[in-house]
Amino acid sequence: MTEGQWKAFCSYRDGYRSLCAKWNSLAGSLFPLQKAAALKDTPEYPLQNAVVYNTAYDKVTQDDEINYIVIGDNPGKEEQLNAKRAYLVGQSGRIAEGFFKRNAEFYTDFRKNVIIMNKTPVHTAKTAHLKFLKKNGGPEICTLIDDSQRIMAQMAAELHRSLYEYAAEGGRKPELWLVGYSELKEKGIFSIYRDTLLSSYKGGKDSAWESVFVFQHFSMNRFLVDLNKFKDENPSFTNERSLKTIGRKHRIEIFGI
User: Fold this and answer.
1) For the whole model, what pTM was predicted?
2) Domain-wise residue ranges, the chain
3) In b/e form, how buried is each residue of 217-242, taking b as 16+ CB within 10 angstroms?
4) Tally of CB atoms within 10 A around 207
5) What pairs with residue 175 in β-bridges?
6) pLDDT of residue 202
7) SS3 label, residue 209
8) Alpha carbon distance 46, 137 (integer Å)
9) Could you name the domain of life of the organism this protein comes from (predicted)?
10) From the centroid of its chain, how far is CA 162?
């Protein structure tokens, strides 16, 4: 990273760590809700962190080149374990990691050249369980889930713009990949995140907006199914060109711009 990129990343990392520590003060209220939400459709698992800071940030150095910011949904069962406490380290993350390993043309190690974020650091076994937390958790929990989305969208946009602006002259400008298409729609769990992100790019008028792309989630291979279907219809397209076309199309569908 350039000096400007590194300073921007450190500011993001340190601020986010503090926010997660603050939000974890509600762990006593969150744990019973998270357990209750999982009872209906999730095998029992060790619940260890109600709010999850991504400890992978602490391993990033200035020597690392950041090619992408990838934004998932929220920390799941594996992400919240004390032994991991990192984002996209479950099945979805392994699919993403495998994609970049198989496609050398992206020149990207998913665990080294990607800043991985979520739309909220509040853990649930399944993303849909966030609705249960909001319905049954009272005003304080609703505020946490909504406010964390707003703050994380603002922080994601700020970091992306800084990495974009301070990229080395003639160097690669990082892209932001927003994965998890369906819950960004009007009545989706992450509609607040969607609206805040767009406003953080000046309604799409910021120059970095053209490097924002929206994709289906990595889970259940939806990202790859979408890509393979497009490539079947457009066999002359490279993976990179295909993803830019798909990501721009979904961005327009979700944001209108």
Assistant:
1) 0.97
2) 3-255
3) bbbeebbeebbeebbeeeeeeeeeeb
4) 12
5) 68
6) 95
7) helix
8) 21
9) Bacteria
10) 17
Q: Which residue in 122, 137, 243, 110 sits closest to 190, CA to CA?
A: 122
Give the type of residue at 216: Q
Question: What local confidence, expressed as pLDDT, does residue 220 receive?
Answer: 85
Q: What are the strands, taking DSSP E only, across the chain?
A: 68-71, 114-117, 175-179, 212-215
The structure tokens listed for 20 are 């997660």
Taking alpha carbons only, the member of 89, 143, 85 closest to residue 111 is 89
Q: Residue 40 has what pLDDT?
A: 87
* Residues 119-176: tens digit of each pLDDT: 999 999 999 999 999 999 999 999 999 999 999 999 999 999 999 999 999 999 999 9
Q: How many Å apart are CA 57 and CA 100, to the nearest integer?
A: 19
Question: Tokens 């500011």 correspond to what residue?
Answer: 11
Entry field: residues in the chain: 257
Q: Which two tokens stand for residue 208?
A: 């970095």
- The residues near 98 (Cβ < 8 Å, ≥ 6 apart) are none
Using 70 as the pLDDT threshold, list the residues of the chain that sit under it: none
Q: What is the DSSP letter of 203?
A: G
* Sheet arrangement for strand 175-179: 114-117, 68-71, 175-179, 212-215
3/88 Cα distance (integer angstroms): 27
